[in-house]
């Protein structure tokens, strides 16, 4: 079983290239089946979730050519099946984007019902509400969700809660519905905008993505396109927090600084210096003592829930008391017990973590409970005294491309090991 082993205590220094955004790419891959023409998608991150989504597309009959690690050519004219197997949904919830994409194109789709996951129960009632409003009949049963429509007709849809997934799924179906759809209280995340831009590049008519109200005028069909996915704001933020926790000096490159504003604001509050360039952001934490602060996760442009564990790891090293309030998912503090094994002092009361900063972490063997918390534990290990081993790194590999290589490029002592022998070798090397 693969693990990350690291010897902490070294400030991360240098610059790191940021890959394409996983959560934008997942939806864009699904949306690529909405035309029979060829679609080329560039800047895909080479991570497990993307490979699973590509597998799901192949499974329903799409023709996929992997031009290189980051570029795929998709032709969906050969699609035969409109049913997405549980095997895929079990691995990535985002395969439910195929529901909106296939329903839009074929007026019919079936996807295994996603269950809860490590971070919460994650209902999909808003996706269903949207499809129904467009005139689809949606049935849930026997572990499946199926949607059928004679025709999809534009509608006025109010989302009771801001949901990235529901906004994108409804957008896709509405792009090929008859007439006008208005989505109110829409999610404004950069990846929602990216999916809308992608669909527009295929001939869709979507306006207002990035605001609360998205207007879609349905078109009869979509055409092929060539599109490059935006950079991953969460990957970038993860390296920025790693710079802060290790008192380093790191520049994240190929990013859109605007997407990182919530992160840079919080890093400034903790005492880091930030320099923004056109497509890069530098975090300087070499001289600063970390200062405590308060943070609440919120939909974009608020502080992202996907950056909450990484922020907590930094605040647990700040001098004084901080609080972190998780307002999106109910189960996103599972990693706190693991962090406590490294010396953090954190008390969780309901959805609030009350953090009493400590001077340093001490290396320990810990387990990644999910993707972002896993990355956060690696950051803690890099800041810790001694050796840390992180188990269950398959979670981290779902969403971070070449994570350990990129960290090594910043001077970290980290390796992926796959046996007791390799673990011993690492210990000898760094001792
Ligand atoms: C997306 O999940 C991301 N995943 C998540 O990233 C991210 O944490 C989340 O958005 C929030 O930013 C992908 O893009 C593939 P939501 P999603 O629908 O779309 C509730 C990561 O680490 N809700 O915006 O599933 C829901 O329970 C992952 O990369 C309903 O009540 O999230 C939550 O409280 C993990 N009913 C809130 O809305 C619904 O029908 C926001 O969820 C849908 C959602």
Describe the fold and architecture.
By secondary structure, the protein is an alpha/beta fold. The protein has two domains: 3-18 and 231-430, UDP-n-acetylglucosamine1-carboxyvinyl-transferase, Chain, CATH 3.65.10; 22-219, Alpha-beta prism (UDP-n-acetylglucosamine1-carboxyvinyl-transferase, Chain), CATH 3.65.10. Helices cover 33% and strands 25% of the residues. The protein is built from 15 helices and 24 strands. Strands 22-23-1-24 form a four-stranded mixed β-sheet, with helices on both faces. Helix 1 runs parallel beside helix 2 (48-59). The mean pLDDT is 96. Residues 23, 26, 94, 120, 122-127, 161, 163-166, 187, 304-306, 328-329, 371-372, 399 line the site of ligand EPZ.
List the helices and strands and how they pair.
Elements lengths: L2 E5 L5 E5 L4 H10 L6 E5 L5 H12 L3 E6 L2 E5 L7 E2 L1 H6 L5 H10 L1 E5 L12 H9 L3 E5 L2 E5 L7 E3 L5 H12 L4 E5 L5 H12 L3 E3 L6 E4 L7 E4 L4 H13 L3 E5 L7 H9 L3 E4 L3 E5 L9 E3 L11 H8 L5 E5 L10 H5 L4 E5 L2 E5 L8 E3 L3 H13 L3 E5 L2 H4 L5 H7 L3 E5 L2 H11 L1
Helix pairs in contact: 1-2, 1-4, 1-7, 4-6, 5-6, 6-7, 8-10, 8-12, 10-12
This protein binds ligand EPZ.
How would you summarize what this structure contains?
It contains 15 helices and 24 strands. The protein has helices at residues 22-31, 48-59, 86-91, 97-106, 125-133, 164-175, 190-201, 233-245, 261-269, 308-315, 336-340, 371-383, 394-397, 403-409, 420-430, and strands at 3-7, 13-17, 38-42, 63-68, 71-75, 83-84, 108-112, 137-141, 144-148, 156-158, 180-184, 205-207, 214-217, 225-228, 249-253, 273-276, 280-284, 294-296, 321-325, 345-349, 352-356, 365-367, 387-391, 413-417.
